[in-house]
Specification:
alpha/beta, OB fold (Dihydrolipoamide Acetyltransferase, E2P), inorganic pyrophosphatase (n-terminal core), Diaminopimelate Epimerase, Chain A, domain 1, 19 helices, 18 strands, globular
């Protein structure tokens, strides 16, 4: 069966939409495929700005949270902001802490430790917070399930505000205020905000409550990074926030740390950044310290005040990322081998692999790679003695949170959301969990796709999209995937680059257009050929710069 299916194009309808909106034909056809088929629907979508954000007024407890924080600022109470150790947790904590500080508050910022307490507001995490003698504690990207610790803080005389987007248990949370769009009583229209977006919204409420003039747009770079890194849907409000944040990230106005990271990723200043750049070049670097147990390094990096300070800390970030790569590659190789031994080459249900030789901080990466390779939900567990800690990743629209919940009797602890989860279990429960997860994630409960849809076949009337068109269509990411193109091309030049010449670097002729292409790991499949049929994505060409685009080749047909 053909691995790819090109969606039918409607040149006449695309031409009418293109003329009405000032687009190229290929971009207009992509809009048609996304269900945006009239100029009236297309124009506000293409030109989305912050002015179109949903009204925040119906958000449950937003007013109560801003009033309590404002009271603490005015009274000189110490406020502790505690964030989770991933990118969303760290960026949301930085956003809220810096806004509070800018409004005159006394604030301490702490980040969870994966190896001392683990995810969320653990007992150890709460002890660290209380050691700061706060009058108010605000959790970011955690807290929705931390009933016992929040109750303990309250008994200690500390008010608690929870800012989180994880799924909400039925039991009422004993917090003074609880900002989470997934609350059943939350009337906020857009449910897809991650914690960075919620922190930004709370910052706006604080500004109003304090009657201050504070330009919150300077924190949009962190909102974009947190949203993309957490795989939040790039639709609705997130699309508007991330679009504005990427624009800031591409400018000299971005914070020193993110300008330094752009330099490390070899993206020239002023070059337009995409969500892909953040997801693949920024997020792994920012996540690496938290994976290896030094999440405060990312906090210090993101809050660096000068380019010199940021560049110095970037060296430490890069060293952590290099170590993370080695550990993740080792775990991935061994996880694949174990999965083959236990389940065979083509498992028909969810897989569970485990070892006491894997680093706990990289099991999520290995799980995601198993899903990509095997096409089934996957759990990768790192054991330390008799206790294991695992990460769960899923495929398509399969709700892995529900699947793990069905196995709760085999687990010591678990939590997460539809797309990803974490868990802890005893070594003696491994085989029971392996069996129950296979049943919960059986082939009849998730979709296994054998064909990938291609948006547009380029050539003829459908030309290579321009950078301007891509920027108006974007940003692309979770729930709004980047367009996939089929390209039948004449090869003008080709060469192998990288270690062993494994990557292909090409110049192609596609209909009326000339375009550069990069084919990672694929040079052996295209070497010596003068005509090629390719599938790939079109992205900014950071090497050439300006308005140049390149084809990122995903497959050779």
């Amino acid at each position: 069966m053909n691995r790819y299916s090109v969606r039918p194009s409607d040149e006449r309808a695309a031409s009418m939409l293109a003329d009405a909106c000032g687009l190229g034909l290929s971009a207009a056809q992509i809009l048609l495929h996304r269900g945006i088929d009239t100029p009236e629907a297309a124009r506000p979508f293409l030109d989305a700005t912050l002015r179109g954000l949903s009204s925040p007024e119906p958000m449950a407890d937003r007013a109560a949270a801003s009033q309590r924080i404002s009271r603490a600022i005015r009274a000189g109470e110490r406020i502790v902001v505690f964030g989770d150790y991933d990118v969303d947790g760290t960026t949301s904590a930085v956003i809220l802490s810096e806004v509070i500080s800018a409004l005159g508050g006394e604030v301490r910022t702490l980040i969870a430790d994966r190896f001392r307490g683990g995810y969320g507001l653990s007992d150890q995490g709460l002890d660290r917070c209380l050691a700061e003698s706060p009058g108010l504690l605000v959790t970011c990207d955690c807290g929705s399930s931390d009933h016992e610790r929040i109750a303990k803080a309250s008994r200690s005389g500390v008010d608690v505000i929870v800012v989180d987007h994880h799924l909400v248990p039925e039991e009422t949370l004993p917090a003074l205020a609880f900002l989470n769009p997934h609350r059943t009583d939350c009337g906020f229209a857009f449910k897809g905000l991650c914690s960075a977006g919620l922190a930004f919204s709370l910052g706006a409420a604080l500004r109003s409550e304090m009657g201050a003039e504070l330009d919150l747009r300077s924190w949009l770079d962190l909102v974009a990074v947190g949203t993309i890194a957490d795989l939040a849907p790039l639709t609705g409000d997130n699309r508007r926030l991330v679009r504005a944040g990427l624009k800031l990230l591409s400018s000299s106005g971005a914070r020193p740390a993110l300008r330094a990271m752009r330099q490390a990723a070899k993206i020239p200043e002023g070059a337009p950044l995409t969500a892909r750049d953040v997801a693949f070049r920024f997020s792994p670097r920012l996540n690496a310290p938290g994976r290896l147990g030094v999440a405060d390094l990312t906090l210090r990096f993101l809050t660096a005040k000068t380019p010199k300070e940021a560049l110095g800390l970037l060296d430490d970030i890069e060293a952590q990322n290099d170590e993370r790569k080695l550990l993740a590659d080792q775990a991935t190789r061994e996880a694949f081998a174990q999965a083959r031994d236990v389940y065979g080459e083509a498992p028909e249900h969810g897989v569970v692999v485990a070892s006491d030789g894997w680093h706990r901080g990289v099991v999520g990466i290995a799980a995601a790679r198993l899903v990509d390779r095997l096409g089934v939900p996957a759990v990768v567990i790192a054991f330390d003695g008799d206790e294991g800690h695992g990460s769960v990743r899923t495929t398509g629209d399969f709700d892995v949170y529900r699947a793990v919940g069905a196995c709760a009797s085999d687990l010591m602890a678990w939590g997460g959301h539809r797309a990803a989860a974490g868990l802890s279990l005893a070594a003696r429960a491994l085989e029971a969990f392996r069996s129950s997860f296979a049943e919960a994630a059986s082939a009849d409960s998730f979709a296994r796709s054998t064909t990938t849809e291609v948006d547009v076949a380029l050539g003829g009337a459908f030309r290579v999209p321009t950078l301007e068109d891509l920027q108006r269509l974007g940003p692309f990411g979770e729930a709004y995937p980047i367009p996939l193109f089929r390209v039948d091309a004449h090869v003008v030049e080709s060469m192998g680059v990288g270690e062993g010449g494994a990557h292909g670097k090409l110049k192609l002729r596609v209909g009326q257009d000339s375009v550069r292409a990069f084919a990672p790991g694929l040079f052996s499949r295209l070497e010596g050929r003068s005509e090629l049929s390719l599938v790939g994505e079109v992205q900014p060409d950071h090497w050439i710069g300006g308005s140049a685009v390149e084809l990122l080749v995903k497959d050779v047909l």
